[in-house]
Design a protein that fits this description.
Layout lengths: L4 H4 L5 H14 L5 E3 L10 H11 L14 H15 L5 H4 E4 L2 H12 L5 E6 L4 H8 L3 E6 L17 E7 L11 H14 L2 E5 L25 E6 L12 E5 L1 H14 L5 H12 L3 H22 L13 E5 L6 H10 L2 E5 L10 E5 L4 H15 L1
Parallel strand pairs: 1-10, 3-4, 3-5, 5-6, 6-7
Antiparallel strand pairs: 2-8, 7-8, 9-11, 10-11
Helix pairs in contact: 3-10, 4-10, 6-7, 6-9, 11-13
The structure holds pyridoxal-5'-phosphate.
Pyridoxal-5'-phosphate binds next to helix 6.
Length: 381
Amino acid sequence: MRIAGRIQALPPYLFAALDAKLGAKRAEGVDVISLGVGDPDLPTPPHIVHALAEAAADPATHRYPSYYGSPEFRRSVAAFYRRRFGVELDPERQIMALIGSKEGLGHLSFAFLDPGDEALVPDPGYPVYGISARLAGGLPVSLPLDREFRPGLGAAKVTSRTRLLWTNFPSNPTAAVADPATFEDAVAFAREHDLLLAHDAAYSEITFDGYVAPSVLQVKGADDVALEFGSLSKHYNMTGWRIGWAAGSADAINALAIVKTNLDSGQFTAVQRAAIAALDGPQDHLDELRAVYQKRRDRVVSALNAIGWSLEPPRGSIYVWAPTLGGRTSAEMSDLLLDHGVFVAPGSGYGAAGEGFIRISLTVPDDRLDEAMDRIARAVG
Ligand code: PLP
């Protein structure tokens, strides 16, 4: 048996490798608090669970789902865009259901990159953009970020092979947020260089201090050149359910659909019905969710600032992105904290420019978060 070169050349998926490290420590009997993966600790709101149970009992959901997502699901996403952003989308041509947004982010590279083609990926950034480029035979090219972790488009290396520009706000891992000008510039850049702008909006509803995240599709004419990826995972505590969407350019949806219809058969219709219940139903839990994360963010930022950091509180996402202390590398810092029973993601796993940072996820209960901060204080004290 010989494994394909493209697989052998890849590093293991960051979190799969981190899980092994965490597992080994726990196997030694150490109580480790994991601030590693961004997997919400709070449950899915009950009305969504109830909608799934009802839908799963309906035999009409038991057959192959629609490839593009059910018309009802796509209409729900269109209604979300209208309500939330004032953006009109044609649910039939401009919206497609995904089996979690990660699935669509990964498959997009196969729709846009021929071997040797290039994708501009934020550095540091969510690893899937670059890894999927490589799996498709393309080349990820680091998109430098400015001091506020926004795209440094002036320094972007565009060549005749560049096809994709990736952005992600609120950002994983940097927790940076965008203003409308960020998106206007990115849309203009994509148009000028004939690229698809792929914007990952997985955290658009998790924002703090009154900040409200814009959509890239609010930029006039963006749906000619942009595709936005949405997810129910973080907004409705539904990471295990695997449902999201792509919205925007009808040509890009068409291209992505050609990849997807050949490789998968869509998401379980009952999960789509539950997602409709999430999108169309009461949204009050979102206020609670934002309040919970904002409080946790404040706990972390003030605890770290009391022991040598000087962090600005981030305005979105479920992460705190912090430089290492004492000139340590990301791996050294995360190993030191692991030795003291706290697991954080090394920033170097998100690209070369993530070296010298760690990422702290806010997805553990408050008492465990406080305990983690005490342990970090002991580790660096
Ligand atoms: N995009 C970003 C930036 C993420 O951090 C994640 C998950 O952590 C995803 C996409 C994937 O989300 P989903 O659960 O919708 O696949």
